[in-house]
Amino acid sequence: MQYTQMGRSGLKVSRLCLGTMNFGPETTEADSFAVMDKAIDLGINFFDTANVYGWKKGEGITEQIVGRWYAQGGNRREKTVIATKVYGDMGDWPNEGKLSALHIKRACEASLKRLQTDYIDLYQMHHIDRATPWEEIWQAMEQLVREGKVLYVGSSNFAGWHIAQANEIAKSRHFMGLVSEQSLYNLAARTIELEVVPACESYGLGIIPWSPLAGGILGGTKDKGQRRSRSADLEKKADQLAAYETFCDSIGEKPADVALAWLLNNPIVTAPIIGPRTMEQFTGSLRALEIKFNEEQLKKLDEIWPGPGGAAPEAYAW
Question: Which pLDDT band holds residue 224 (cuts at 50, 70, 90)?
Fold first, then answer.
């Protein structure tokens, strides 16, 4: 397994991150345990979850599954870097969502209980909370760090401006601030190259792409195991997908592996999140670590899946 540091931090994580969103709703607990055990066997030490995963408000079903896996012992907790999230509604009463100091404290303690651990390696804000001042958010996060309940803080679905604002205020408070940003990023969705990627490069954040296969459409529409209904998105991108799969055939690689490898080729990317429903999907992702592209191949991928034209403002102003 290959490892890299999480942004400017000293934390080392595997180049692939095991996403647990399907654990519970799509994957049984027994199968989830098997996938996590296999991840450890393969050297994957980076797991991502969220308090809202499991999709039953307030229950944190996926965190509970991870917690019961940890409870088996065998140094499972010590071998993993666990990332979870705060923001989503965990109840219907006031202050059971968003990023108030009260909710951050309560949500963290609830996640710790469900995960059966006494600390969270990477605590990520699942979304920006425009109603809560950064001074309040950072005060709450600083307290969690002082108590040893959180080691690093990250963001998810932030704009470039949010990252700059958050880290400038953290700097003024002599706090480390954000070390990572979890964003929608794949060959078919490259908007973050305008502002989020430059902000992360400037402030030393590692990018953790979610939906690296664009909801599955980059996994190969011709493959039986990846066949999906003809959604509007599939039909809209039919010509691009045909060209993409022809390209993948030409280099002898599977579309899903090429999509992951393309992300790994970008030095700002820490680890794409792979969210398998089955063991076969999980183990199949490992090939991406071995694929390398030459300049001609990267140019061809840009032709098929053009980005916004680089960073802003040059991408649209010049």
Answer: very low
For the record, the structure tokens of 249 come out as 């055939």
Query: In the prediction, which pLDDT does 225 show?
Result: 44
What pLDDT score was predicted for residue 281? 83
pTM: 0.94
Cβ pair 275, 24 in contact under 8 A: no
Structural domains of the chain ordered from first start = 3-219+254-292 (3.20.20.100)
* Active-site residue flag, 87: no
In 102-215, the DSSP E strands lie at 120-125, 150-156, 178-184, 206-210
CA-closest candidate to residue 157, choices 188, 180, 134, 141: 180
- Is the Cβ–Cβ distance between 114 and 67 less than 8 Å? yes
Angle among Cα 238, 157, 271 to the nearest 5 degrees reads: 75
Q: Point out the catalytic residue in the list 53, 70, 87, 203.
A: 53
Are 38 and 6 within 8 A, CB to CB? no
